[in-house]
Amino acid sequence: MFKFFDLFRKSKIGDHISPDKSIFKRKYECFKRLLISNDRALKIITDLEHVFYRDKPFTLAYVLIQSEILIGEVYSIVEDLNEISGGEYPQLFDVAEKIGTTILKDLEQKKKIDKTNLILPLEMLSRDNMAEVGGKAANLGEVYNRAHLPVPQGFAVTAYACQYFFDYNDLSKLIDNKLRGLDVNDTETLLKISPEIQSFILNAELPDDLKRELRNAAIELKHKSGSDIRLAVRSSATSEDSEASFAGQHSTVLNVTEKNLVHAYKEVVSSTFNPRALYYRRSRGYMDQDVIMSVACIIMVDAQVSGVMYTIDPNDRRNAVIMISAVWGLGVSAVDGSTDTDFYQVNKENRQIEKAEIATKGTICKTDVQGGTKDEAVSDDLKDKACLEPEQIKTLVDYGLKLESHYGFVLDIEWAIDKQSRLYILQARPLKKSLKFIPEETPTTSLDVSEKELADHPVLIKGGASASEGSASGLAYVLKSDHNLYDIPKGAILIAHQTSPRYVPVMGRAKAIITDVGSVAGHMASVAREFQIPTLVGTHNATSVIEHSEEITVDASNRVVYKGRVEKLLKEKKAINPMKGSPTYKAAQAALKKIAPLNLLDPKQDNFNPDACRTIHDIIRFAHEMSMRKMFWISDDIKSKENIAIRLYSSLPLSIYVVDLGGGLSIDPEAREAQKEDVISVPFKALLNGMTHKDIEWSGDIGINWGGFASIVAESVFRDPLKEGRMGGPNYAVISGEYLNFNSRLGYHFATIDTYCGPVVNDNYITFYFKGGAADIGRRSRRATLIALILKKLLFRVEQKGDMIRGELKKYDRVLIEKKLDMIGRLLGSVRLLDMVLSDDGQIDWYVEEFFKGNYTFAANR
Fold first, then answer.
1. How many Å is the Cα radius of gyration of the chain?
2. What's the rounded Cα separation, in Å, for the pair 125 and 128?
3. Is 523 among the catalytic positions?
4. Phi/psi at 285 (nearest 5 deg)?
5. Catalytic residue among 148, 223, 483, 523, which?
6. Mean per-residue pLDDT for 176-200?
7. DSSP state at residue 725
């Protein structure tokens, strides 16, 4: 891209630039460095935008490292600009430092755990204590103290206590070293590192005062209850039950004796680093420092019946219902999907039961006298009996509506009824804060496909429950006992006997999930919805009906599985980054706002100065413009004899300045102006021929309705050429008889063309660089894709990231290089505003076809 420097060095122009050749040589070296840093910096900005706006998880560490490199390049740019200009812009150092410091501060946020009590009783807690005790414990306190509904008595071991435990054993350093550089998609490494970290925690000693307070809290709880107690020791990490549910990712230890309390506590803390928790946390945009384990210790409810209640249908916000899943015994089998559940759907308005689906329940989870839990066969008289009586359902609905009203959003509620028929709330968390009842909303997941259109496709399964709507097609991976879960190939559909949080680490590979057993209210169902993975549960026979490796299509919305691929059901839907709304996402977003936007557009505006730079991109833009002016001695008076650059006039509404290294223009050596006809540089002449092609309309509107914001954009991009003689800003061309480096900025985007076009085929090349636009990143990226497809048809080797395109063509004869440059000129003129038009990926192919038909204004019905 910078071959012109070598030509610049060899040309005779250096003989009359300055009497002090050493000064010029130093400026030349600085200018070369500045342009190299400029190129690197823009590539980093493009990469950061690409990483942020795509629908895949990213790490804050990567954004931080790239930002540090970017800021380093910008400091170099500012240093070189001041060297070139003789120190004209010292204030730019302060601007760069201020913006850079703010960016790094956004990205290096350290979560500080305030010093609190080690133990806090439940009666002292509410939602105000989330930072201290996490969502689960804080919400239990809220339900008891403010909503005034029954919960088991208990206490919370605070997040500060966990940090104290880690500091006491210097665990944080050990853990950080183990996790450094971990890619959670590398399952083999994840499965190796996770148990090592957990063993560090399980083998560490609790500080004596923490151990003492933990046991004292249990004794005090026993005295309050008036009898021996067992505890449920449950995770309540900071960030749990927030924008991300963390459903089923951390451990719960049930029926814990006083003797085993310390070990149970450490077991829950260590689950912060189990494979599924690590995968979930990183994929959802939470750093390790965002998830500090508080632990809720509550009196164990020896449940007769338990379950989960949703105060909305999670797949259909138009459906004003309460959904209840219930099992005999402890609710663990309802949330982990190990047994079928009774299902009840209740109308919120009239509180009538709309559905009552009674399952055949094979197993029951009970407390064990020795501690822990055990599974037993359900007695014959209970197998097919409904778990809940109508009055119990009524009470559950009353509690659900009261809590929803109290919180102001829909909830996922765990509950249990003990053997004395007392109902307890065990957990209340946001089902999803964005969910609310919208009766008129059009469903987004269903497809307008009739049963008649699908009649030719064999049905493998019809039924089950839609845990996460959508459709997908792929090869079935039927998980049997001799299969390794972590061997599931990317793009497969996971078929398993039951739902399980264990499947979370492979959700990045599975297109869909189907299970024999499970409910829409289970932990895995919650996570599947968060990751937008179509999931069908409770089919009863999926593992026996579907053959391993056969191609299938699952329509989870309509609860049907088809043999083969059903194209009509495979609607492309816009993917959403699962990190959106997370601390990592917000930090990267804040940093990017100070990096990528470009505010300095017009060099002739009064605000084109260092003090007006608000972003890293502004600094780069300002430095690039000023360095060009200083290096090529472009003064405001274009006829000044001090100008090294010559103003080129043509029919184009562009300001073009040319530096002739020799043999590029046929004009008098003293002339300060040139016409298009004076250009004899082979590559520049070819490019100009394309740009001035009779069918290119530089001042056309390509069918855009210029209203609102678009009219403002148009005015800034297209000025009246008769008034200003330019469009968007100065464009620079460094030329010789066989060489061209053309740097063009048209309003909100810029392009660089670097080419050599001579008689020796092996020396000939074109590199083309394009970035930017006035529209949003989606539209800009579509235009970049359009350009990429055109370049590929022109036989360029193309690299695209977001709205950045780099194309390269090498070793073609002179005639072909000229033809390609002519087409590049036409491309520049025809796509200049297409980012404002391309609202749909489906439009791109049409534009490509029309371009090669010579329809450069794209005048047709689209």
1. 33
2. 8
3. yes
4. 85, 30
5. 523
6. 87
7. S
